[in-house]
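chain below, 87 aa
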Amino acid sequence: MSTLLVSSKGQIVLPAALRRRLGMGAGARIEVIEESDGLKLRVVRSVATADIAGMAGLVKAPARGVPRRLEGFDPASLLTRSRRGKA
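prediction:
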């Protein structure tokens, strides 16, 4: 556990080993959360935005068989089919 010193300007310095482990470089943002027993520091990680149109076609499911409708679904047929497979 590290102890941090607060400067006259209210600045603190995080140890280099901790910054490297967390992947923090110059300009990294830290969120400070006040809790009943002290402060909690959390690294704010930016999430890159992506255009959903650019993701079209990334995932394709292979078509298997004939499309089914909910009206034609019979749960009992699944039970008999699984029992036949065990025998």
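The chain has a mean pLDDT of 82. The domain at 1-46 is CATH 2.10.260 (Pemi-like Protein 1; Chain: D).
thats it, cya
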